[in-house]
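Office hours follow-up: a student asked to see two folded examples consecutively, so here they are.
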Amino acid sequence: MRIFRNAIMALALLATPVAADTPASPLEQALAVEQSRMALLNGDRLKGFLLFRNKRGAQPVERTIEWIDAQPFLEGDKQWACLAEALYFEARGESTAGQFAVAEVILNRAESRRFPNTVCKVINQGTGRKHRCQFSYTCDGLAETITDQRAYERMGKIAHIMLNGGPRDLTDGATFYHAKYVNPAWARQFTRTATVGQHHFYRRATRLSQN
């Protein structure tokens, strides 16, 4: 009954305007914030928008260059730096959706028991061992030099969004990917989950138990 009464109160507050000079209760404040967020997502503005959560709560995300460029550039910790660098060297020439998709794979790996448990460890897995690098730029013998600052800032913004709870709905849980112009043998062992931009994405095939 208490839950039902609370729901009725919330509906009543949504329908009742709060005077500007009247102190709002915490519930009223929360409802007002939620209404303002929903207003941002009405009509055509809903298309292309997703939500991620950070310390400020739910924030709208649009996977376009214009939207990314309009966001502030915020440096982060070591894990952020690793992800931003990986996106720069692995995906800066991709579409924005493709860049988000590569970030998904890295974060999916970090959460999988089959891979190292941090972003930096995932990216550097196998580095220094011939043909064992998981991300080719870490063992191509070239220095990781940032030459396109604007592209790097975009990758840094995407890294910030994804590390703070950005949605992972492009690759259906993929933990592998490769460029469309190559055909690696390992890809035959996995299930392709998506194609985004210039990359195919995969995850391990699910084995069904037999009785």
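And the second, which I mentioned at the end of office hours:
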Amino acid sequence: MRTLPEASVARLPVYLRVLSELALAGRTVVSSDALAALAGVGPAQVRRDLAPLGPRGTRGVGYDVVALRDRLQDVLGLTHEWPVVIVGAGNLGQALAGYAGFADRGFRVAALVDVDPLLVGSSVAGLVVDPAERLEDAVLRSGASIAVVATPPGSAQAVCDRLVAAGVRSILNFAPVLLVVPAHVEVRDVDLSVELALLAFHEQRRAADLPLDLPVREGRA
């Protein structure tokens, strides 16, 4: 398989989600047009993204849903379980630890770490929260190469440095700060405030395009 463009790789999990839902619904084949509509992209883009992977779709019939789903799982490395360490057991960390969808996609939250003495030793989603000083032990014990940073921004870089030193190579960062990592470490940033700001921008654009003489719906007396 030739190297995939980063943009194509980013769309593969979306295709996988759609195909998994179709398989659960009992669908056996799906056309590129239908897959594109469900994934929110164009049919030509779907065909370009999937062409290097196989199995190929059949003209006039479409893709075999299960075969393509399994192939994407293999390409994405989701054919075995990945242990994950979450650093930060606040509201966000607890919600992530309790999210059942991780297990369905091959991820197992193996450790939860926090600095707050009120949280350390408590049970969250079946895990006992480890103290921050045992972060490295949690990574070693779990065998995790993937970690989630759900800490306040002020401590995120220090946590990141410790995770990298402990052997973590992939980090999902929810802290609203840019993490500095070595070249061999992959960081994916999830900044909810940025996403909300983008939604606000589009809402403002839509509002600006509305006519000023909209009819007023009178309320009931």
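Two things to take away from it. Residues 108 and 220 are 52 Å apart (CA to CA). The beta strands are 29-30, 63-64, 82-87, 107-114, 123-124, 127-128, 130-131, 146-149, 170-173, 186-189.
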